[in-house]
Amino acid sequence: MKAAVLHAPREPMTIENIAIDKPKRREVLIRTAAAGLCHSDLHFIEGSYPTPVPIVLGHESAGIVEAVGEDVTYLKPGDHVISCLSMFCGHCEFCLSGHLSICQDPWSRCAKTCR
Q: How many whole angstroms separate alpha carbon 87 and alpha carbon 101?
């Protein structure tokens, strides 16, 4: 798979072929159709947010689930998804109506699965 890789802050990213492992527990492998770099990513590029490198940036993307790891129950291969860093419970009226960004209790899911 090709990806833009950041090797050091304030250095140009390089397009490289990278290998992706099978998803581990609570991970999902997505065939990315589109991805963008947001302002959060710019902080890593500029060195404002230190992070281990090399790293592939772009946490806001859209694609299709290829595989799921152990304990993933709410997605399956073939599902169309978007990714973001927002947490959601999946059970409140907002989540059930497709408005995950205004979830009333985003930590409830994490309390059960983020161990």
A: 8
Tokens of 76: 């399956």
Domain count, the chain: 2
The pTM of the full predicted model, rounded to 2 decimals, is 0.68
Going by pLDDT thresholds of 50, 70 and 90, the confidence category of residue 110 is low
List alpha helices for 1-115, DSSP H.
39-46, 93-96, 107-113
23 lies in the same domain as 64: yes
Residue type, 75: L
Residues present in the chain in total? 115
Residue among 75, 71, 65, 77 nearest 25 (CA) = 71
